[in-house]
Each structure stands twice: as C-alpha cells, then as structure tokens.
From TrEMBL:
PANTHER family: ALANINE--GLYOXYLATE AMINOTRANSFERASE 2-LIKE, PTHR45688. Keywords: Aminotransferase, Pyridoxal phosphate, Transferase. Signal peptide: none annotated. Its cofactor is pyridoxal 5'-phosphate. One of its GO terms (molecular function) is transaminase activity. Pfam families: Aminotran_3. Gene3D superfamilies: Aspartate Aminotransferase, domain 1, Type I PLP-dependent aspartate aminotransferase-like (Major domain). InterPro entries: Aminotrans_3, Aminotrans_3_PPA_site, PyrdxlP-dep_Trfase, PyrdxlP-dep_Trfase_major, PyrdxlP-dep_Trfase_small. The keyword rRNA-binding does not apply. This is 4-aminobutyrate aminotransferase. Belongs to the class-III pyridoxal-phosphate-dependent aminotransferase family.
C-alpha cells in the first residue's frame, strides 16, 4: 500500500514530534506559502485565511521582511547592550497607551509576557492570588498552565475562576454579574488567607467564547480587585494591535486603564515577540527586588520587526480599517441567522467575531459536533476559520487585518453554502 503524502507526513510527525501537539481540521493542511490573506498548500490549492491573527498585516508582508533582513544583516544582540532600535520601538509602543502606562519590557511570546506580568504583580502587591475566567487560556509556562483552565487540568491552589461576562447566557447586566463574581472570588481567596495579586483577563475573552461586552462591563471587576490590593492585567495577546477597531481592545472601555497590558501574537506578524506595558512605579519595585534578562526578548532583530509592524499598522490605520470593514463583516454574519437555525448569537467587534451555534434556542444547547463539521467543511471549501468557547461551539472568525470587502464576500458565500447544507436544515 502506498500512503498519500499527507498521511506519511502525519505518521512522521507523530513519530518525531510525539503526542502532545494537535492539528486543525479533519483533513490537516500542509501549507507551504502565504501571501496577504491567502494561504497555499503543497498542491497549489488556495485557502482564504479568516482565522490567523498573528500575520496581522498579512502573510509575508514586505515591511516585515525588509526590517528583518536589514537588521539581521547588521547585528542581533540582546538587552545587555545599548541599541537605539529597542528604544525607538519602546517609545513608539508606549506612546500608544494612556498614562501612566509608560514603560515596556520585551519577551519572546505571549506566555512569557503574562508570566513576567504576574511576577511583577506578585512582587509589587505581595500577594499571590490570581483570578481568571472559567475557560481562560493564558499560556504555556507551568505558572500559566495553572491559570489556564481551558487546558482541562484545573487551576493552581491560589487561583480562582469566575464565569466570563457572557452576554448570551447572562440575563441582566453582564458587568454587574462579572463584578459580583470577581468580588466573591476575592472573598474566597481572603478567607483562605491568600492575598490577591491580580485579575488576569483576556480583553476579548477568546477561549471563553469571545465577549467584547458593553461599555463599562469590566469596571466593577477592576474596582473590586484594586480595592483588595490587587492589579488588573489586561491580556491583549489576542485583542491587541488593532483587531477590535482600536489599537488596544481595552481602549473601547472609556476610562479603563489597566495596571499592566500583555502583548504577543500579532506583535511581530509571525516573528516571536511579546511584551508587557506597565507603570514605572511597578517596574521600579520589581527592578529593586529582582532582575529580568530574557536572552532573546527584545533582541535587535525583534525590535526592528516590532517597530515595522507597529508603524505599518499606524500608517495604514489598520484599526480604522478593522472598524469600518469589520462592521460589514458583523452585518453579514448576523444575516446567517436567516440561513440556519443553528446560528444563535453573533458577537464581537472589528475583525473578531464569535458565531455561537446551538441545537436548541430555548435551552441554548451547544452545537459542538455541528460547529466542528462546519469548520471542517469550510476548510474543504477553501476557507479557514476556527472554533472557541468552553463547549467548542462558537465559530471563531479572526482574519489578518488585511481582510477586504471582497474577502468577506468569499467567506460569506462559503459559510452560507456550508450552513445551508447542514443536516436538519
Ligand atoms: N494569552 C492569550 C489570550 C492567548 O490567546 C495566548 C495564545 N493563544 C497566550 C496568552 C499565549 O501566547 P503564546 O502562545 O505566544 O505564548
């Protein structure tokens, strides 16, 4: 028997990479090239990328390639030497945040950014308790695995979970319900003698199912953690760099200034960069008590790439583009309610949407198998999206910000075709 090239690759992969990695799609893709919002497999088949937030400017963007090659051909060192590029980058970056968020530190990933933010929070507050949402994902380190209940391993002893501000399943004021849940989690920590250090939330609540709530929906929760002596860490690893129609998702909330913001994924358009933007007083305390050296974090090439990505986002006003063209996407996705009774709730902003599928609107029963079938059928049709949510029943639509109206048409044609062909329609 001769095996197909993909089957052989799957076997090789299992043999050499082991059991812990997962693949997307019933028929995994072997992608060899990307350009803008298009991806191509080894047979030259084209896919529309409506999923990947990392290549925020689009795959193989020339500004990133140019910055990378220019800097890599000169020098690549670390933060123990002086270099102007990291300063230009840090200055440009922190200037996009409200005061007093005026300092930045750099890492190689979103996980390292969250890990560093937690170290700073624990040092500055003296606390160790952390509150996260019930299906959160915050990263790969041992510390963060204990704060990422979506991994299915439970949480660490000093961590408490709260339900996300779920606008679909909460009746009444989501902000009040979320604030109340955080207050109860704080009280629970305190009862056990654990001082709260931080409320750590993804400002898009991506793995919880995407909830970018109404104005003020985080205010009560943030007030509660601060009243208890803890800090508010906004994890913008998913929501940052223009996705929400603003450069930072928390900016949609008037007056909300986190104590720390963590960054990653789109920050290098595919190059591994992460970071923490925070207040000088917090870094002063951290720097007095400890030190931080991350061999590759903030290296010269990464700083040059990060600067190119951020400058391009600003020059092209990609947040504005996401807001404008994203509104078309929102309207189109809402029209799917007329195409299939599975479509129960469409939520999101800019270029980030969750389309929740249920089998029963009264009971709100998650259509988990159906969501997987839709995502697999879309991939077969040449359009890539994903799923999220505790029950994996929310279609996750999160394209590069280079997405245009014509791509929305292509995505919608595929979505309508697949949804109208689902059994029971
Ligand atoms: N925070 C959030 C909200 C994330 O979605 C992720 C990655 N999925 C991380 C942190 C971790 O980032 P990384 O994979 O770059 O370590």
């Amino acid at each position: 028997m001769t095996l197909s090239a993909n089957t052989q690759t799957l076997l090789n992969r299992r043999a050499v990479l082991g059991a812990a990695y997962r693949l997307f799609y019933a028929e995994p893709l072997n992608l060899v090239r990307g350009q803008g919002v298009e991806l191509f497999d080894g047979d030259g088949r084209r896919y529309l990328d409506a999923y990947n937030n990392v290549p925020v400017l689009g795959h193989a963007h020339p500004a990133v390639i140019e910055a990378f090659t220019r800097q890599a051909s000169q020098i690549n060192t670390h933060t123990r030497y002086l270099h102007d590029t990291i300063l230009s980058y840090a200055e440009t970056l922190v200037a996009t945040f409200p005061a007093p968020l005026r300092q930045a530190m750099f890492t190689c990933s979103g996980s390292e950014a969250n890990d560093l933010a937690l170290r700073i929070a624990m040092t500055a507050t003296g606390g160790s308790g952390v509150i996260v949402t019930s299906n959160a994902y915050h990263g790969v380190t041992a510390l963060l695995a204990g704060m990422s209940p979506s991994l299915g391993l439970g949480v660490a002893p000093a961590v408490r979970t709260v339900p996300p501000p779920d606008s679909y399943r909460t009746s009444g004021d989501v902000g009040a319900a979320f604030g109340q849940a955080v207050a109860e989690a704080i009280a629970d920590l305190q009862r056990e003698g654990i001082q709260p250090a931080a409320l750590l939330v993804d400002t898009t609540f991506a793995s919880d199912g995407i909830f970018v709530g109404p104005q003020g929906y985080l205010d009560q929760a943030v007030a509660a953690i601060r009243a208890a002596g803890g800090l508010f860490i906004a994890d913008e690893v998913q929501g940052g760099f223009g996705r929400s129609g603003q450069l930072w998702t928390f900016l949609r909330q008037p007056g909300l200034v986190p104590d720390m913001v963590t960054l990653g994924k789109p920050m290098g358009n595919g190059h591994p960069i992460g970071g923490v933007v925070t207040r000088p007083d917090l870094l002063d305390v951290f720097g007095q008590r400890s030190r931080y050296f991350n061999t590759f974090g903030g290296n010269t090439v990464s700083a040059a790439v990060g600067l190119a990505v951020l400058s391009t986002i600003q020059q092209q006003d990609l947040p504005g583009h996401a807001a404008l063209v994203g509104a078309e996407l929102a309207a189109a996705l809402n029209s799917l309610k007329d195409v299939s009774p599975l479509v129960a709730d469409v939520r999101g902003v800019g270029f980030y949407y969750g389309v929740e599928l249920v089998t029963d609107h009264q009971q709100k029963t998650p259509a988990t198998a159906e969501a997987k079938a839709v995502v697999d059928a879309l991939a077969q049709a040449g359009v890539l999206v994903g799923v999220c949510g505790a029950a994996s029943n929310v279609l996750k639509i999160r394209p590069p910000l280079a997405f245009q109206s014509e791509h929305i048409d292509e995505l919608m044609q595929a979505l309508r075709g697949v949804l109208s062909g689902m059994p029971g329609q």
